Amino acid sequence: MSVTPPLGSGPDDGESSVPDEEWERFQREAEDSVRTSAAPREPSARARMVAARLRERDEEAARGQRGRRWGRKKEPEPWQPEGWRTWSAQETPGRRKWSTWLIGVAALALFAVWGSTQVYGMPDWLGTADASEKPLAAETAAPSSAPPQEAYPDRPTLDEPFAGSPARRWAEGAAAIELPEARAVGDVSAAEVEAGLMRAKEFLVAANLDPRVLAGGRPAEALSLVDPLQTGYLAELRSWVRNPSVENDPKWVFTRFDPDEVRLVGDTVKVRGRMTVEEGKQGKAEIHADYTFVYPLTKAQEAGEVTRTIVRRSLVAEVVDREKWEATEGKLWIAGHVGDIANDACAVGDGFIHPSFATDLRDEERTGPTSDPYDRSRPIDTERQGECGTATRI
After folding, report:
1. CA distance 292 to 383
2. What is the spatial distance between Cα 34 and Cα 26, in angstroms, rounded to a whole number?
3. 303: closest CA among 116, 161, 92, 194?
4. CA separation for the pair 309, 270 (Å, rounded)
5. Which residues have C-beta within 8 Å of that of residue 6, sequence separation ≥ 6?
6. Residues in CB range of 116: below 8 A, 6 or more apart
7. How far apart are CA 18 and CA 10, in angstroms?
8. Residues 243, 245, 248, 254, CA torsion sign
9. CA angle at residue 302 from 301 to 307, to 5 degrees?
10. Residue 339, strand partner residues
11. CA 336, CA 351: separation in Å to the nearest integer?
12. Which is nearest to 204 in space by CA: 181, 186, 179?
């Protein structure tokens, strides 16, 4: 039995046990291996064929562009997708980091927008109006207080006639008079109540929004809506229109301005209020309407300065079962009507409202108390009906 001697030991001290021929062969094979791994490999026949086909298709695309004599020159469009053989579309680690950073920024921006919409609504830079400029929701009950007063309100102008006024957020014109859902009340059917609500709205529009009436015309349509069976009331109203006086002035029912003195700025009148129905005496249905109208005005002969007049109307109308009570179909039975006017020369009884302007010097005695014409939290003070007072703002 032979035994392999330990490495480094042998009969000859310091001499290798590997023959010189074997050692030289080992070195040559190692060097050949290094050269083979580092040198580029010759492409296979299939690879060469694919590359040649790609070049041919690119050349065909380029040839197809020749011969164009007009229009914008179009670059050849290789058939292969972008990035197939170009570096520009290849993703590198640096580009991957840049893309990730952009995605993160976009996500944070979207989260900020979403969060602002949850708390404050859409942000201002997306085009939404400030909360203080948004239209008010319809009034369904008496407010608890007057609208807040601005410390330094803007003055009205021809371009912005409601600047500095709470009315800038109110609805406009007849559309602001919204009817409640009709229901049967007392002895009156829902259909009769609905008809009464419609007549009440028509009367308010004809008396306070009709352009011809506002310009000083006769309130013929409003008068025609009153039930002719109310002979005494109708006769009184007609008399007021024909022969107005301080004691019997039709402006307490119909909004009219002297066309030789003032004119409306634009065709917008701001309106706010509500209409309700409740059961009255003897099974009757009572319609209660309470609305405030704001009119922007300028002088007829020298337009420039703008002022406002605020008119509040409170109307009570009765609807009855016509099988039990006398009433004319399609007409309105007015049981009560009171009004309040701010910015008016109340001592003049010619049937017109006479607003004052800041540039006017009017020495008019004000015996009544001050009041805020925009305060709808309180009912009209019937104790001082027709009495002159001072408005805290217009």
Report:
1. 19
2. 13
3. 161
4. 11
5. none
6. 122, 123
7. 12
8. positive
9. 105
10. 313
11. 20
12. 179
DSSP assignment letter at 126: G
Query: How far from 64 is each of 68, 78, 224, 353, CA to CA, in Å?
Result: 9, 11, 84, 84
In this structure, of 9-13, 45-49, 249-253, 290-294, the range with the lowest mean pLDDT score is: 9-13
pTM of the model: 0.68
CB-based contacts of 301, cutoff 8 Å, min separation 6: none
CB 251 within 8 A of CB 357: no
Bin 124: left if φ > 0, else alpha if -120 < ψ < 50, else beta: alpha
Chain CA centroid to CA 223, Å: 38
Nearest to 186 by CA among 382, 331, 319: 319
Structure tokens at 365: 């005695």
Gyration radius of the chain's alpha carbons: 45
Nearest Cα to Cα of residue 269 among 129, 134, 168: 168
> Helix %, strand %, coil % for the chain, to 5?
35, 15, 50
- What DSSP assignment string belongs to 243-265? S--SSS-GGGTS--B-TTTEEES
* Rounded distance between C-alpha atoms, residue 245 and residue 351, angstroms: 7
pLDDT digits (tens, 9 = 90+) for 198-234: 999 999 999 999 999 999 999 999 999 999 999 999 9
Separation CA 159–CA 161 (nearest Å): 6
Residue 309's nearest CA partner among 115, 176, 160, 167 is 167
Rounded to an integer, what distance in angstroms lies between the CA atom of residue 126 and that of residue 123? Answer: 6
